[in-house]
Amino acid sequence: MNLLLISNSTNFGETYLAWAMTQLESFCEKNQIKSDSKIVFVPFAGVFINGNPYPESYNAYTQRVKKVFEEKLGLTNFVSVHEVEDKIQLVKDAACIVVGGGNTFHLVAELHRYGLMAEIARCAKNGTPYIGWSAGSNIACPTLCTTNDMPIVQPASFNTLNLVPFQINPHYLDPHPEIDKMIKHGGETRQDRINEYLAVNQDMKVVGLREASALWVTEDKVCLKGGKKMMVFKYGNEPLELEPNTDVTKYVL
Predict the structure, then answer these.
(1) Active-site residue numbers?
(2) What is the distance in angstroms between the CA of the first residue and the CA of the last residue of the chain?
(3) In Å, how far are 37, 71, 99, 202 from 103, measured between CA atoms?
(4) pLDDT value of residue 186
(5) Which pLDDT does position 182 carry in this prediction?
(6) From CA 14, how far away is CA 85, in angstroms rounded?
(7) Of the candidates 220, 137, 216, which has an alpha carbon nearest to the alpha carbon of residue 172?
(8) Which of 48, 119, 138, 200 is the least buried, fewest Cβ under 10 Å from its Cβ?
(9) Is residue 31 within 8 Å of residue 2, measured between CB atoms?
(10) Element (H, E) at 37
(11) pTM for the whole thing?
(12) How far apart are CA 188 and CA 24, in angstroms?
């Protein structure tokens, strides 16, 4: 497998996908993705983009990502699954599959509805490079259960691609982030919610992937990229914090 699992698309004050560009360039070079390679995009998590509600939002989302891939990466053969009738064949023909962020529940519901969950998993496990951010990285896990999103629809199943044997919590926030300069959050923290998941899924591990970080995954190796440390949660153990730009394989596999 060749997976690039990105926590977030945009850092505050930056242009779209700017922080991740180094990772995207390296990933494409490593996997010999060239200008005419067919890039297949999945926009189903984008239910409200630039004021456009679903399903019109798919066009806006596709154009946003396509512009970056063409102008910054030189990848001009960019097609979204919502633009074609035979979506499964398009995925089969992909040189690289890209799944954008947004609402994970809607993404998972649409992938199951069109039969794409199984096909994307098959292709990725057979070596088709896969890039996902936010919801797109969450669905690389066995289930969507560690998403942060509101369940705006009910998918046929919570099961996802199962490309990695652990769960990812994208956009991981440390306990009690400041709401403003005077008030601090007093309710459940992200760690509390992860602990709830682990209480009923005691054999799983959860990766807290902070913003501006990503995981590069191959068959037998997982590396943390970007500028932020990563958290690993396991039932009955103290959380483990790992340094950026290191091999984290033994801690997650």
Answers:
(1) 134, 149, 171
(2) 14
(3) 28, 26, 12, 26
(4) 59
(5) 53
(6) 35
(7) 137
(8) 200
(9) yes
(10) none
(11) 0.95
(12) 34
pLDDT in tens, 133-189: 999 999 999 999 999 999 999 999 999 999 999 999 999 998 755 555 555 655 688
Handedness of CA 188, 194, 198, 201 (dihedral sign): positive
Handedness of CA 45, 48, 49, 54 (dihedral sign): positive
For the segment 111-136, the average pLDDT, to the nearest whole number, is 98
Closest CA to 152 of 244, 230, 45, 71: 45
Task: Report how far residue 190's alpha carbon sits from residue 148's, in angstroms, rounded to the nearest whole number.
Answer: 9
Burial category of 60 from C-beta neighbours within 10 Å (exposed 0-12, middle 13-18, buried 19 and up):
middle
Sequential DSSP letters for 171-198: T---SS-BSSSS-B--S--HHHHHHHHH
Length of the chain: 253
102's torsion region: left (phi>0), alpha (psi -120 to 50) or beta?
A: left
